[in-house]
Amino acid sequence: MNTDNHSRQVVKKKEKDLTVMVVAIIMAVALVSILGFVMIKPPQPTVQGQVDAEEIRISGALPGRVEKIYVNEGDRVTKGDTLVKIYSSLMEAKLMQAKAMEQVASATNKKVDSGTRDKIIDAAREVWQQAVAALSIAQKTYQRMERLFAQGVISEQRRDEAEAAYEAASAAEKAALSQYELAKEGAQKEDKEASAAMLSAAKGGVDEVDAFMDDTYLTAPEDGVITEIYPRVSELVATGAPMMSLLKDDLWIEFNVKETMLREVGEDSVLKVYLPALDKTIEAKVFYIKDMGTYANWQATKATGDYDVRTFRVKARPNVLVEGLRPGMSAVLR
């Protein structure tokens, strides 16, 4: 009988110990869960962006043929460096005509001030003959361009340019003839004033063409890197046709962030940005914030108690020059 009581006591003691152990384990698990909930913060969402830069397309103001390219793709250039030379036969012809008209006006002006009528008349006649020769060349050029246009060899623009040159030469010839006839008749006071005005206009025409001739050389508008060259040497290019692309040195980092982050990412704020390609963290100052519109909204996931969140584009410029930083590299906001 005593043996049975002892056995029951042993069993009860084991059950009690097991119960205490289970309760202790449950309390320990609960304590660890509470501590984890209080102390462990949820991970911050990763905001990834990329490095970007402005690309400029360099184009010419004159039609012509690419005579020489002074740079290669990948070359770094400085503002003002010569990139391309374009040969424009049209502008060469216009320059010749403008100088011829200047000679006409100059000779006429001298003729008006000269006292020897025979020399005046001879000079005017020579200038007129020069204008006649220039007109003949321009006429032949226009006729040749007209035939080539009819055959579909050249564009309508080049035919029109030749026609304009022909009309300018014709006008110059008529002006020279008028001055020649005026020389034979003798000059009056009004003639002297008209001659001086014609000389001034002719010089202005030469200056204008010289200004256009400056556009035969294309220069770098900004510091940067040549990323792509479109035409090749000897190819024809039209007015405004892109010649090459230049990537400016001014780099920035672009992110798309929720509006709830704008309290941390404000105008002129400094961000810490990690660059995986360089394994480097840098500082960048925000200079641009813009709403991306309703198409980029984060839609609410609950019918009640939630709201749509708009997306903003943020641009930040590195505070210092980062060696090796290139457009297209990934960037992570920290």
Describe this structure in words.
The protein folds into three domains: 1-42; 47-52 and 249-333, Beta Barrel (Elongation Factor Tu (Ef-tu), domain 3); 89-214, Orthogonal Bundle (Topoisomerase I, Chain A, domain 4). It has five helices and twelve strands. The protein has helices spanning 2-39, 89-113, 117-150, 156-185, 189-214, and strands spanning 47-59, 64-69, 76-77, 82-87, 217-219, 224-229, 236-237, 242-258, 270-275, 280-291, 311-318, 330-333. A six-stranded antiparallel beta barrel has the order 1-8-11-10-9-12. The protein has a four-stranded antiparallel beta sheet with strand order 5-4-2-7. A hairpin with a 4-residue loop joins strand 9 (270-275) and strand 10 (280-291).
Can you give me a brief rundown of this structure?
The protein has 334 residues and is α+β, with helices and mostly antiparallel strands.
Q: How do the helices and strands follow one another from N- to C-terminus? A: HEEEEHHHHEEEEEEEE
Structural class: alpha+beta
As for the number of domains, it is: 3
Helical amount: 40-55%
Largest beta sheet: strand ordering = 1-8-11-10-9-12
Number of H/I helices? 5
In the CATH hierarchy, the architecture of the largest domain is Orthogonal Bundle
Q: What is the typical, i.e. mean, pLDDT?
A: 78
Q: End-to-end span in angstroms? A: 76 Å
Low-confidence spans: pLDDT under 50, at least 5 residues?
Answer: none
| CA-based shape | rod-shaped
Major sheet details: 6 strands, antiparallel, barrel
Radius of gyration: 41 Å
Tell me the name of the CATH class of the largest domain: Mainly Alpha
Task: Work out the strand percent.
Answer: 25-35%
Q: How many strands appear in the DSSP assignment?
A: 12
Per the CATH scheme, the topology name of the largest domain is: Topoisomerase I, Chain A, domain 4
